[in-house]
Amino acid sequence: MWCPKCKIEYTAGITVCADCKSKLVEELSDEVEVIYTTNSQSEAGEILDFLHYSDISSAEISYNEETNEFDLVTTLDDAQKAGQMLQLFLAGKNNHPAITGNKTDEEGILNEDISFEENEEISSNTQEEEEDSLSSNTSVYVKSQVYYDDLKSSAQAFTAVGVLGIVFWVLNFTGIIPWFQQPFVLAVMMIMFLAFIGVGISSFLKLKSAKEDMEDEGALSQKVQDWLRENITEETLLSLNEEGDTPEVSCMRHYDYIKEKLSFEMSELDEAYMDAMIEDFYNSLHL
User: What is the rounded distance in angstroms from the CA atom of residue 160 to the CA atom of residue 158?
Assistant: First the structure.
């Protein structure tokens, strides 16, 4: 067993590094993933502290002399969790402009090449580790209202294009607009425009179900937000702060507390949906 941070080998049976308290791994990996790039050394230091606080001990700062920038890197196994924690850090930083001073998107560039699927494949050395990775993966929740609006727009667009295409086909077939007269081209055009109409009709048929889901979600969201407002106060969250906490660490404490309470009260909620509800609620507070 090896410590991924100290690079010290331990005998079998030991699971935690005696020096840095990091979890030991079976093998050391020389490959690292760049999760964030910034030209501010202080910002890089803040993020590094936050990642270490979040038990991502493999996080390090690498200075790029060619670009004069600082790269935040982690092992491939930690890249997925580090990306999630980084998103939380940036969200907390943007909520405290008076403290941060500069806009994050002007100083740093989030590495968009990190995908959950790639990291799951890399980090899953055993079936048990793969299941743990999948269970900890936080997906992005798409609200039913957004899905309904997108579906409605798609239905209207596909149907309109299909109908106009059929009209265009008829004009060509009758010779009024003799642009495409070849039988093969006309056949392909007809199939394509009919397919557009088919997709449009299919989307329209799904609208009723999507609207019902949207209404059900609206009622559930109202119930969740009402419970949060009644049971989670700003005073309670502020009491969780410890001396020396950065705004990002405080945000992390608040988020964990809210999620723990909400999970206990409404354990049936989907995790991605719960995260979206907590984010909406937290953004409404004046912390």
Answer: 6
- pLDDT (tens digit per residue) in 31-77: 678 889 998 888 888 888 888 878 888 888 888 877 888 888 888 87
pLDDT band of residue 29 (cuts 50, 70, 90) is low
Distance, CA of 163 to CA of 273 (rounded, Å): 38
Judge whether 265 and 278 are in contact, CB under 8 Å.
no
Nearest to 72 by CA among 63, 84, 60, 82: 60
**Using an 8 Å Cβ cutoff, are 214 and 144 in contact?**
yes
